[in-house]
């Protein structure tokens, strides 16, 4: 029960900014690339539309950080798994 509560709380903290934070500005590499494309080829039309547009820059940063944390956790688990197998023979 305790683990389920912690998992629910973590999921709630991840989803909460997606709902609460609105209309914030974020100028990263994607925005700069879009500006450059508009300057070089003003008639260019994207091949597809964005599936999910985060409500703000902080949310986008949260999602990138979450992706990095999950990736680091998976890599750390795999390394630990192989080191444990090596030690146990």
What is this structure's SSE topology?
Layout: H1 2-20, H2 29-40, H3 57-88
Main location: membrane
Organism: Anoxybacillus thermarum
Membrane topology: Multi-pass membrane protein
Short description:
With 89 residues, the protein is mostly helical. 71% of the residues lie in helices and 0% in strands.
Explain how this protein is built.
The protein is mainly alpha-helical and 89 residues long. It has one domain (3-86). Helices cover 71% and strands 0% of the residues. The protein has three helices and no strands. It has helices at residues 2-20, 29-40, 57-88. The radius of gyration is 20 Å and the shape is flat. The chain starts with a helix and ends with a helix. The model has no long low-confidence stretch (mean pLDDT 83).
H/E topology pattern: HHH
- Name the structural class: mainly alpha
What is the gyration radius calculated from CA atoms? 20 Å
How many strand elements?
0
Q: What average pLDDT do the residues reach?
A: 83
Q: Into which percentage range does the β-strand content fall?
A: under 5%
Termini separation (Å)? 35 Å
Q: Considering DSSP H and I runs of 4 or more, what fraction of the residues is helical?
A: over 70%
Helical run tally: 3
Globally, the shape reads flat
Main beta sheet: none
Number of self-contained structural domains: 1
Uncertain runs: none
């Amino acid at each position: 029960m305790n683990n389920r509560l912690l998992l629910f709380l973590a999921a709630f903290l991840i989803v909460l900014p997606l709902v609460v934070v609105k209309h914030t500005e974020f100028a990263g590499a994607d925005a700069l690339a879009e500006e450059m494309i508009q300057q070089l080829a003003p008639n260019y039309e994207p091949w597809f539309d964005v599936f999910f547009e985060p409500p703000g820059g902080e949310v986008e940063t949260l999602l990138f950080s979450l992706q990095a944390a999950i990736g680091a956790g998976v890599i750390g688990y795999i390394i630990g798994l192989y080191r444990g197998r090596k030690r146990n023979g």
